[in-house]
Amino acid sequence: MAKLLDIHKLSAGYRDAVVIDDLSFGIGQGEAVSLLGRNGVGKSTLLATIMGLTTVSKGCLEFDGKNIANTANYQRNRMGIGYVPQEREIFASLTVEQNMRVAARPGEWNIAAAYKLFPRLEERRNNYGNQLSGGEQQMLSMARALVGNPKLLLLDEPLEGLSPVMMDILLDAVKQLKQSGLTLILVEQHAHLALEVTERVVIMDRGRIVHDGRSDLLLKDDATMHQLLGLAHAHQVENTAENSAENAAGNISASVRKPDLKLAS
Ligand SMILES: Nc1ncnc2c1ncn2[C@@H]1O[C@H](COP(=O)(O)OP(=O)(O)OP(=O)(O)O)[C@@H](O)[C@H]1O
């Protein structure tokens, strides 16, 4: 089956600085992929490159069967790539609803559907962008990308700086999106949480992909977690009684996770 996104021997970065180095990577329709790696290895740059926000020095980038290496950023968005940047980029002088209206395009994801996913946004529908908490801004950034009805959703550290309760809400939303069949790439420092909501994981190191496999297998692989992500005792933490009970109940609760689950720098 043709891949929705197909990257071949791609090098990219910022002006003369090459950050993504000869990288190849593909993602099929409906796949949910965690993109992990230590700080500064190029994860955000890879998402920005898919979105058309960096300088590509060589290689191919195909989306939905078309070469988009020279396609402008706004056109990529129209073609179906949705982006939730790390900075959220909410329009401060627009209300919650206006933030979504400016991005909405016809399709299954309309504003009502976004409110269903994030009821909190409906309660805040008339609040301006600068009157929202960090978690609400993150919900809005994700909702705004969704009402554009993307075929591929890029999420750059959606849990960063959020309270455990907000992390639960955002993670549950990602899980629902995956279950709905949306193709997505999730960059996250909270590796264990990301691995629980995706079926595939790709790990980067110094601009290259150094691991590509199943999320559930990596969760049990302490040696690789330690070697590539700097995470120690992943398996042991995963198997605490608390977490086992949560998993058995089918819930993902960030609030019971240990703070040491973030990647080492
Ligand atoms: N706008 C930019 N201009 C120039 N260099 C940049 C820019 N953004 C990132 N870089 C550099 O690119 C490299 C990769 O950064 P990037 O943010 O992609 O890594 P990352 O894996 O997402 O890290 P983190 O997990 O800390 O967000 C770093 O050396 C960084 O300093």
TrEMBL record:
InterPro entries: AAA+_ATPase, ABC_transporter-like_ATP-bd, ABC_transporter-like_CS, BCAA_Transport_ATP-bd_LivF, P-loop_NTPase
Annotated ABC transporter domain residues: 2-231
Entry-linked CDD domains: ABC_TM1139_LivF_branched
Gene Ontology terms for molecular function: ATP binding
Family of this protein: Belongs to the ABC transporter superfamily.
Protein name (Swiss-Prot/TrEMBL): ABC transporter ATP-binding protein
UniProt keyword annotations, A-Z: Amino-acid transport, ATP-binding, Cell membrane, Membrane, Nucleotide-binding, Transport
Organism whose genome encodes this protein: Herbaspirillum rhizosphaerae
